Amino acid sequence: MTAGRAKVNVLCLAAAASDSAVDDCRDKGCSHDCETVGEFPLCVCPSDMVLDRDGRTCKDTTSFLLATFRGIKLYNEATEDEATVAPGKAGCLDYHYGRKEVYAYTNYTLMRYPLAKGRAASPVSLVARTDTAVTSLAVDWVSDVIYHISEQRQTVGVTSLDTGNTRNLVTHNDSASAGWHSLVVDPYVKKLFWVGNRGVFSSDLEGEGLTTEVISGLKPDKIALDTRNKLIYAIGRRGEKKNKYITRTAYNGTKVGADVEVRQPATVEIFGLGVVGNTVYWESNHDGENIYKCNLEESILGKGEATLVAELNQIVYDMKVYHLGVQKPPK
């Protein structure tokens, strides 16, 4: 009987401690989750957010997925941490934010890699094999497919993320259509955009309605979409100008705002472009392999500041901005 009473008392004390911890966490006012360490409640955040200085609020952070010679990397701007998602060279990549998965092209295969950890993580797996080299990927996070470009055949194809079934959508063999790369997708308006020697191409998700030269006056290196505001961002060379320019246009080619000159030579190579809000990020080989950013709203007289975000010290083939806002539904 004595032993039985002791056991009940222990259970009651444990329950009381648990109730106290719950109350402490509730009083803490965490924006997301709360854990107790000893007697102290601590606010905790999802892996793609960081805790603000107030100790209670989780805020979004901007991260960058990098396809490098050393593997697929994830670099966090706020914490300056770099994590390896997968070893080995990857030529190009994209991600599905909802699934917490990265998709990459390597050695004639489309591969799936998990970003989540623990039980929530999906296994590394083969999505599909390709019979030609792939130069660019764009994940449709609504229909769960991945679009890809074969520059050798000037073809845009699509592959199911779940079944691996692949079919071609657009094929052009004339010299004017050569050099296809930098594929992006807006699944909400069902549009594809990509860069070629003649400028920016676009079609619907079935490859119909092909148009060219959506952006005039700029020879783009890379493009990125703001799907919430239906804008195309491009960085590239403007005529004989010495520096790079960033421009914004609506999907129909109508220019939005003034072009912004960034102080990087027009001859540097760009290996990735992305946008979050009014801030444009890109990866270039200017002064080494680095990530830069420019807030277009802070530009003065058409000139913007190229602010260094990270020195990468490694060969980069592709970069995508990893942020909830990139794959968020339109307003």
Write a concise synopsis of the structure shown.
The protein has 331 residues and is mostly beta strands. The protein is built from one helix and 28 strands.
Describe how the helices and strands are arranged.
Layout: H1 2-28, E1 33-37, E2 40-44, E3 49-51, E4 58-60, E5 63-68, E6 71-76, E7 82-87, E8 92-96, E9 101-106, E10 109-114, E11 125-129, E12 136-140, E13 145-150, E14 155-160, E15 166-171, E16 181-186, E17 191-196, E18 199-204, E19 219-226, E20 231-237, E21 243-250, E22 260-265, E23 270-276, E24 279-284, E25 290-295, E26 303-304, E27 307-311, E28 316-322
Parallel strand pairs: 22-26
Antiparallel strand pairs: 1-2, 3-4, 5-6, 5-28, 6-7, 8-9, 9-10, 10-11, 12-13, 13-14, 14-15, 16-17, 17-18, 19-20, 20-21, 21-22, 23-24, 24-25, 25-27
Explain what you see.
This protein is mainly β and 331 residues long. The protein has 2 domains: 2-51, no CATH class; 61-327, Neuraminidase (6 Propeller). 8% of the residues lie in helices and 48% in strands. The protein has 1 helix and 28 strands. The chain has a 5-stranded mixed beta sheet with strand order 19-20-21-22-26, with no helix packed on it. β24 and β25 (290-295) form a beta hairpin. Mean pLDDT is 87; it is low at 1-17.
